[in-house]
Amino acid sequence: MTASGLPCKFCHMVSIADGGVLFTDFDGIPTRTCWKTDCQSKYHWELERIEFREKRRLQITGKCIFKLLDGFCAELSITGEFFCKDHLIRRCAICGKQATRACPKKDWGTCDLVLCHEHTHIHTYYH
Ligand SMILES: [Zn+2]
Ligand SMILES: [Zn+2]
Ligand SMILES: [Zn+2]
Ligand SMILES: [Zn+2]
């Protein structure tokens, strides 16, 4: 499926030239957003809601909420904790607190560092 021909979920414009982003919305419906700043910010807000709901679901079912590049870990977590045994011992590369996610940068190849939700790994030419 290509993005062309599907209307933008937010502004309802159909664009042939500009593909936009295909995604599955909060209601599980495959849809598309265009590149307009307004639509992009609504799109990111919707992604956050989807992620929040997914995280709640994992927490309730006792699954690890460590965020990997392609979604949550979802392994069975240690009783009373939000993370599995592999992720509970991971520490933020910046501050040393419990890490909650893998470094999301992909443009410099694979990065093994993990971070808490407050910190971002700054990738420079020297690393
Ligand atoms: Zn739009
Ligand atoms: Zn895990
Ligand atoms: Zn940190
Ligand atoms: Zn990194």
Detailed description of the structure:
With 127 residues, the protein is of the alpha+beta class. The chain folds into two domains: 1-60, no CATH class; 64-127, no CATH class. Helices cover 22% and strands 13% of the residues. The chain has two helices and six strands. The strands form three sheets. It has a two-stranded antiparallel sheet with strand order 1-2. A two-stranded antiparallel ribbon has the order 3-4. Strand 1 and strand 2 form a beta hairpin.
Question: What is the compact description of this entry?
Answer:
The chain is of the alpha+beta class. Helix content is 22%, strand content 13%.
Relevant terms:
alpha+beta; 2 domains; two-stranded antiparallel sheet; two-stranded antiparallel ribbon; single chain; 13% strand; globular; binds zinc ion; 127 residues
List the helices and strands and how they pair.
Layout: E1 21-24, E2 30-33, H1 37-60, E3 67-68, E4 71-72, H2 85-88, E5 101-102, E6 114-115
Antiparallel strand pairs: 1-2, 3-4, 5-6
The structure holds zinc ion (4 copies).
Task: Please mark out the parts with pLDDT under 50 across 5 or more consecutive residues, or reply none.
Answer: none
Side by side, the strands of the main sheet go 1-2
Sheet of most strands: 2 strands, antiparallel
Helix share bin: 10-25%
Kindly report the average pLDDT value: 90
User: Any ligands, ions or cofactors bound here, and which?
Assistant: zinc ion
Q: What structural class is derived from the secondary structure elements?
A: alpha+beta
- How many domains make up the coordinates? 2
H/E order of the elements? EEHEEHEE
Distance between the termini: 38 Å
Number of extended strands: 6
Radius of gyration: 18 Å
Instruction: Name the overall outline.
Output: globular
**Fraction in beta strands:** 5-15%
The helix tally amounts to 2
